[in-house]
Structures are given as structure tokens and as C-alpha cells.
Amino acid sequence: NEKIMLAERPKGLPTKDTFRFENEDIKEPSEGEILLKTLYISVDPYMRSRMNDKESYVPPFKLDEPLNGGIIARVEKSQNDAFQEGDIVTGRLPWQRYTTTDGDGLQKIDESIAPLTAYLGVLGLTGLTAYFGLLHIGEPKENETVVVSGAAGAVGMVVGQIAKLKGARVVGIAGSKQKIDYLKEELNFDYVINYKEDNVLASLKEACPNGVDVYFDNVGGSISDDVLSLINKFARIPICGQISQYNKEEAERVPRLQPLLLTKSALMKGFIVGDYADGFKEAVEELGKWVRDGKVKYEENIIGGFENVPDAFLGLFSGDNLGKQLVKVDE
Ligand code: NDP
């Protein structure tokens, strides 16, 4: 049984040396346990923060232990009445080809409702993050201008589409021509900015002649400084992620924001999707309906092979993915 361990805590951008592959025998399930075969592994930017030896909203990964995260797996053997052979489950599981567990915290999923991979993306963590951050903090209204950074990623593309459903004008910021074309042509974003090629501030001024009412921040750094310079009175700013900062060894010193927030009566609020756990069931139902009705589209970037999990993770920081980044491990 192959597994991927945290070999060392990275300084800056992780490298291949951050990870180590190990082998062990598969553990047969004993009474009350199940044996799972991993089918899909989700790689997510927040995992970078868990590689640091620092307490956060999730505890750090332990050195010389397998990394873990959102996984879809099939029950191969069951000694637990709650699970049957063939059941498909999702939950937080270790980066291993096979896992033996008591099944605690796992949720059964149904392929007849949505493709399995959707449960790691649009109907999973990233879809829910977009849903709650935008609707509960951003609260976009008709004809308002919503700007979203990381717009072609798993969270960002759902944010933009929900904002459009609510009648807002949507401006997306992303890092490649392919992504820009996709947002414009497939998702009908009103304006898109390639932050690697365009002058971000000048483009934002053109894109937002009436200012910015909602800024959904996935990336932080200078992109966010530019957007914030254009906020309107009563703007709402959900702070979802700061991917541009995750590999920095020292936090950047930034201008103080209190005068801006004060003079604009603006709301800036950080959130963790788990804050909204009580509402997940209804949110998944609504997101599922939007997906079935074709109102919310989603993309997945699926790489094959367990050996490619580290590369898939690293690709998040170079922007290799359009939509949700997943690794297919087995059939
Ligand atoms: P994405 O699918 O958006 O993948 C990450 C993307 O970030 C890349 O594709 C890349 O796109 C962009 N990126 C990478 N480095 C930079 C940089 N230096 N500056 C600007 N953009 C960069 O990931 P997710 O949708 O899973 O996550 C998006 C954000 O949401 C992350 O910050 C994540 O931490 C956060 N998040 C927060 C949650 C919460 O509960 N608060 C839950 C889940 C995610 P590009 O080509 O455009 O550069």
C-alpha cells in the first residue's frame, strides 16, 4: 500500500523533497472497520498552510505521516454494518491507495445524483466556499459590480456564476489567456483581466466605471490592493483565501486598511467554509439544482496517477488548473 508522507516542512514553495512515498502492507479490517480504495484525491491551496508547524484553523500536518484531505473512495471490504462493499464515500482521508478506518466522519455519496468528482468540487468544499462567502458576506445585488480574483479556479468560477445569477456585473481576474477566454466565452463574465499581462489597476478602472461593490478575495497581495482602491460606499469584501501569500516566509507589511473601511462604511470579513456547516445540506441542494439546470457550470482538471499527487498540488501555485484540481488514483 503506497502512501505520501510529509518528509520535511517546506520553506517557500514546496518541492519534490517535501514529499516522500512509502509502502506498507494493507491492513485487513477488523470488527467495526472498513477497507477503502482511494479513487480521487483533491489537492487544495490550504494544504500549504498545514505544512507549516503553526496552529491554524486546522492543525498542521505531522512530519513523517501521510498528508490528508478530501478523498473519494470505494468500500472494498466491510466489517461495519453501516457500510457495504461497493459503497462510495467521501471525507478527509490520508493520501494512501488503501485506508482501513472505522468510517467515522465519512459520508456516502450517490453517483446517480451527480458525477463522483463533483462532490470534491462544486458540490463539495469549494462550491460551498463560493456559496457562503458570496451570499452570506458579499450579498451581491442586482446591477452591482462584483470582482473576484482567482476567478478561473474552483471557488472563483462558482463565485462569478452565482453573482451573475443574482443579477450583478461580474469582473474576473485570472492568470492565463485560456482562463480569460473561458470566463468570457463559457461563463459570460462581463469583464476579465489577465493579471500576468494587463495593468491590473488600469484594467479595473475600465472594468468598474461605477466602482466595486463586492470583492471576493481569493488571492491577496497587490491584486487585492488594486481592487480595494476602487471600492464603493458600503462595499462587502469576503476574505476567502490569500494564495499569493502562502509561500512567503515572512508576512508582507501592507498599508493600514482601517481608514479605507471607515470612510467607505465597508465590511471586510474573513471566513472558513466550516463556519457554515449547519447550512451545508440546503446549500448542496441549491447548488445541485443550479448545476442540473445548467445555471452553474464547473470544470475539473483531472490528472491520472497516485504518483502525480505532489505535482498536482504544486500546479496550484503556478496556475496549471482551470477549475477544480483532482487526481484520479483508481477506477
Ligand atoms: P484554485 O482552483 O483557485 O487554484 C489556485 C489558483 O490560484 C491557481 O489556479 C492560480 O490561478 C491562482 N494563483 C496561484 N498563485 C497565485 C498568485 N501568486 N497570485 C494570484 N493568483 C494565484 O483553488 P481553490 O478554488 O481551491 O481556492 C481558491 C482560494 O480559496 C485559495 O486561496 C484557497 O486557500 C481559498 N479557500 C478558502 C476556503 C475557506 O474556507 N475560506 C476554502 C477553500 C479554498 P491563476 O492562473 O489565475 O494564477
From TrEMBL:
InterPro entries: ADH-like_C, ADH_N_2, ER, GroES-like_sf, MDR_fam, NAD(P)-bd_dom_sf
Pfam family, one: ADH_zinc_N
Keywords, ordered alphabetically: Oxidoreductase
Taxonomy, superkingdom: Bacteria
Residue ranges occupied by any Enoyl reductase (ER) domain in the UniProt entry: 12-327
Keyword Hydrolase: no
Metal-binding listed as a keyword: no
Protein name: Enoyl reductase (ER) domain-containing protein
Organism whose genome encodes this protein: Priestia endophytica DSM 13796
